[in-house]
């Protein structure tokens, strides 16, 4: 148990660290004793990367960074620290240098793009009555309702923040594609995964919220990454 790397889970837009709840319980049951979940401010890529780096620096030994959705952009930007052993992308953005999540989304718009709306303060929200069908169509209506009401909106400008030096060019990677994703186009996920040449890619018949709807297979990928990264 003690030789397992620490896991740092990084959430994306429209959710907080608690989106990882089912994954956390599953990983603990598999013997991962050092689990951490960043609570990002979602105010800028720089702010979120700084928050993630700060948590990683507090951890002794190897760390596996796991990012969901926009959290993939965060681990891409923040994953250059020497104790980061690998990067796992869960239905996530993996931009290259100079790319932003917004740019990638505009090039291949996802099915639910029109269900995102700004408020008067510049924050972007998924319309509550569209959240279930947009973000988590494979969860129960009650689970999606809680996610919709508690969603953590990003500043709209964060969508346009570009990566400087992508960590996936230097670190081992793993990727999970959600084939029924309506928030990031599945073909965009495949494209981002393919150019990273990950050690393993899996496809799940899942919504954008695969971390909640299919925590078992997601944890299978995290566990495989942890074993391989630890032995690298």
UniProtKB/TrEMBL annotation:
Keywords: Hydrolase
Keyword flag Hydrolase: yes
Alphabetical list of InterPro entries matching this protein: AB_hydrolase_1 (IPR000073), AB_hydrolase_fold (IPR029058), Sec-Metab_Biosynth_Hydrolase (IPR052897)
Residue ranges constituting the AB hydrolase-1 domain according to the UniProt record: 7-220
Keyword Hydrolase attached: yes
GO molecular function: hydrolase activity
The protein, known as: Alpha/beta hydrolase
Organism of this sequence: Streptomyces kanamyceticus
């Amino acid at each position: 148990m003690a030789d397992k790397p620490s896991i740092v889970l990084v959430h994306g837009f429209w959710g907080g660290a608690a989106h990882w709840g089912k994954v956390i319980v599953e990983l603990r049951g598999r013997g991962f004793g050092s689990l951490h979940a960043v609570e990002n401010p979602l105010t800028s890529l720089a702010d979120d990367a700084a928050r993630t780096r700060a948590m990683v620096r507090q951890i002794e030994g190897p760390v596996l960074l796991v990012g969901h959705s926009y959290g993939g952009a965060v681990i891409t930007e923040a994953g250059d620290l020497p104790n980061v052993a690998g990067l796992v992308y869960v239905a996530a953005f993996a931009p290259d240098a100079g790319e932003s999540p917004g740019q990638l989304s505009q090039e291949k718009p996802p099915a639910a793009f029109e269900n995102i709306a700004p408020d008067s303060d510049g924050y972007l929200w998924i319309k509550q009555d569209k959240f279930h069908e947009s973000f988590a169509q494979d969860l129960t209506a009650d689970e999606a309702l809680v996610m919709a009401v508690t969603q953590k909106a990003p500043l709209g400008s964060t969508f346009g923040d570009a990566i400087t030096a992508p960590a996936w060019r230097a670190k081992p990677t793993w990727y999970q594609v959600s084939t029924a994703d309506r928030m990031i186009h599945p073909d965009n996920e495949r494209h981002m995964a393919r150019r990273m040449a990950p050690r393993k890619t899996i496809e799940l018949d899942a919504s954008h919220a695969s971390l909640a709807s299919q925590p078992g297979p997601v944890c299978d990928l995290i566990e495989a990454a942890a074993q391989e990264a630890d032995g690298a």
